[in-house]
Design brief:
- This protein is of the alpha+beta class and 164 residues long.
- It has one domain.
- The protein has a four-stranded antiparallel sheet.
- InterPro entries: FHA_dom.
Length: 164
C-alpha cells in the first residue's frame, strides 16, 4: 500500500471513539477512530516508515452547527460556537483531515483560532488538558455566564452527535 492509499483507507474508516484513547493502533483493530486516534496512527506510521514532512497538529477552531455536523445543540443552548480541539496532519505544509470520509479542512479553516504541533503520544491527556485550559481561558476572557462544566457537557453532546 502506498502512503496515499493508507491515508485514504484510514479516512474511510468510520468515526468513533476507540476503547483506549492512548492506544492509537486500535484504529486498525477496531476499524474506527476519532480525529486524534486516526491522525496519531498516521503520524506514527509516517515516522516509522521515514515518510518526511508529516506533522501532527492540534487546531482549536470555532465549532458551530454550520462547519461541523453536531445537530442543533448549540442553538438550543443559545451559543454561537464552542472552541474545539481538532487533530489533523500537515504534510509538506498542507493540512489533511482524515477524520471521516466526508472530512474537509476547508469547512473549518476560517474558524481556526490557533494551532500547535504535537507528537502521537500527546493525543491523550495532553490534548484534553490543552483543550480544557483553552476553554477555561476563553470563558474567562469573554466573561461568559456559563460554567466550564456546562460547556464541557454541551461539547460532549456535540461529539456524541458526530458518531450518529
Amino acid at each position: 500500500m502506498t502512503w496515499e492509499e493508507i491515508l485514504l483507507s484510514i479516512k474511510n474508516l468510520p468515526y468513533g471513539r476507540n476503547s483506549n484513547r492512548t492506544d492509537f493502533s486500535l484504529v486498525v483493530a477496531e476499524k474506527k477512530g476519532t480525529c486524534s486516534s486516526k491522525h496519531a496512527y498516521l503520524k506514527d506510521f509516517a515516522d516509522k516508515n521515514s515518510i518526511l514532512n508529516v506533522k501532527l497538529v492540534i487546531g482549536i477552531y470555532k465549532m458551530n452547527e454550520s462547519n461541523t455536523k453536531i445537530g442543533t445543540i448549540l442553538s438550543e443552548n443559545k451559543m454561537e460556537y464552542i472552541p474545539e480541539a481538532h487533530c489533523y496532519l500537515k504534510i509538506d505544509g498542507v493540512r489533511f483531515d482524515c477524520t471521516s470520509s466526508n472530512s474537509d479542512f476547508d469547512k473549518i479553516k476560517n474558524d481556526l483560532l490557533e494551532e500547535i504541533e504535537i507528537e502521537p503520544y500527546q493525543v491523550g491527556d495532553f490534548k484534553i488538558e490543552y483543550h480544557q485550559n483553552f476553554i477555561k481561558n476563553w470563558l474567562s476572557e469573554n466573561n461568559s455566564g456559563i460554567s466550564f462544566e456546562q460547556i464541557w457537557k454541551i461539547r460532549e453532546q456535540c461529539i456524541e452527535n458526530l458518531s450518529l
